[in-house]
């Protein structure tokens, strides 16, 4: 099963391709988000209400011939296309055959390294493309040797992710892993934002999805454009990363997308 499909998408979208101009080849692992697979891989997605506007349904992930859809094992209505089917297959492998999944991931990381070297680029990897897994807590074995996590197994490679989990303290001490906190404007999410601000402080930047005009400051931090590339580890420290609403997020009415600087969660967290 592990040999029938690929896990990593290498510079598969316009945003990650932009990283090549800055010297990086980017690989991203896309799994089925939230509980679409029947198992929750984004533990705060329901509170943040980010399941519906998730980038999972942006671009090719939201296109299907005749607008065909199917219902996932977790009850999500998804576009019936190869992108969604592949994400479900990867997730099933991760959940049902973890050793096989990790063996394939290690193989693909090594292949991506060789590809980057051939192109004179540096490899960067994002394992939570459409998930929010605490990879720092998952041990693995590579070539018969045990490692605390994938980051220690490939300590020479730069990893990065977005997360809505407010207390990933162990991730902060991993030198080759960079986190960006993912904000939601939903009022019920305000306590989580407050906890994240207290835990991470200015060590971790905050990504905010905006619709319409983008403010110069947000929650007292300078706002910078996050759509110029996906290389979050190159951003200045202590800023808000502005991301434009894409896909179904453009029509989001849950509060997840921020329309103006007076969003409920912002007011509560300020």
Task: Tell me what the structure shows.
The protein has 270 residues and is an alpha/beta fold. It has one domain (8-269). The chain contains eight helices and 13 strands. It has helices at residues 14-17, 45-48, 82-96, 98-118, 150-153, 169-172, 190-200, 264-269; strands at residues 8-10, 24-29, 69-71, 77-79, 122-126, 140-142, 145-147, 158-163, 177-182, 205-210, 217-218, 221-225, 240-244. The chain has a nine-stranded mixed β-sheet. α3 crosses α4. The chain is globular. The protein starts with 7 loop residues before the first strand and ends with a helix.
Unreliable sequence segments: 262-270
Largest sheet: 9 strands, mixed
Number of strands: 13
* Count of separate structural domains: 1
Itemize the secondary structure elements and their pairings.
Layout lengths: L7 E3 L3 H4 L6 E6 L15 H4 L20 E3 L5 E3 L2 H15 L1 H21 L3 E5 L13 E3 L2 E3 L2 H4 L4 E6 L5 H4 L4 E6 L7 H11 L4 E6 L6 E2 L2 E5 L14 E5 L19 H6 L1
Parallel strand pairs: 2-5, 5-8, 8-9, 9-10, 10-13, 12-13
Antiparallel strand pairs: 1-2, 3-4, 6-7, 11-12
Helix pairs in contact: 3-4
Summarize this structure briefly:
By secondary structure, this protein is α/β, with parallel strands linked by helices. The protein has helices at 14-17, 45-48, 82-96, 98-118, 150-153, 169-172, 190-200, 264-269, and strands spanning 8-10, 24-29, 69-71, 77-79, 122-126, 140-142, 145-147, 158-163, 177-182, 205-210, 217-218, 221-225, 240-244.
